[in-house]
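Hey,
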Amino acid sequence: MDKEKILKRSKFYYLCSFPVLKKLNEIDMPYAIIKSEPLSMYAYGAYGQRIFGDIDILLARQNLKLADGCLKQSGFYQTINDSKKLREYKIFSLASSHQTVSYKRLVGKYFIEIDINFDILWGEYTGKRIDISEFLSDSVEMSIYGCKIKTLSPLKTMIQIALHHYKDLNSVFLLATRKNIKYDMFKDVYYLLKNNLDEITLDKLYAMSSEYEIIPYVYYVLYYTGLLFKDEILERYVAAFKTPEGEGLLNCYGLNEAERREWKLDFQTRLESKNLYELIEADLSERDLRNIEINRKVFLGD
């Protein structure tokens, strides 16, 4: 897809989502648009530089009901016709994930999707949780296609993106249902850092990662970004974040100890693969397969 089409599509998505964003602004709910266009601006200096399939909103768990009302008033609904099934999926997502069942709005022949995230860690995480209300306390304003929205600072965007990418690269469910590892994930990390060095200083990033007890996960993402982008500044960040625990994660996948396994293939092979499921299929247990099937139904509608 060329840049003009990406920009046109991105603008369409945001224009269709403005009613929700305006309502969130009107009630002064703490929230942040994550990824999509804010990341495009931070990393590349312009909107429409990244392809995205939905708009992600981060807010505290206690505000989910309020956000649900804003979404429904704006024509967005969780499109599962079976009320019993929808209730089951909602309970599952709240207990086992970082996001709710997606909201969608039909505009012409296109579905506009909004995902509500109430955590930046994954459902399988067993460590210290991050207080999302605190995480959102210094959100900044940004104007996107004429609408004022709230988003994270560049520093907290790096924290959120690092954790998001770690999850994407290690979730058994995502590895089983996505075709490949996207090079653009690492590109986003690199340019987010390089174009915001005054705000994402090594000291600040390390201090915040230490506070949230996520140094090994940030190291993991920085390390693999460093394999693809040779840069002296990035090398300093990688070296500073290096820990035995972080090194122990490099050749593994899985989001907790119970499902963690070692990769049998190197990173370059994984990066070039067009079918990640084939790389892990032989190692999956019956429990893994059940979890994949449940997640597929809840989050992919299969």
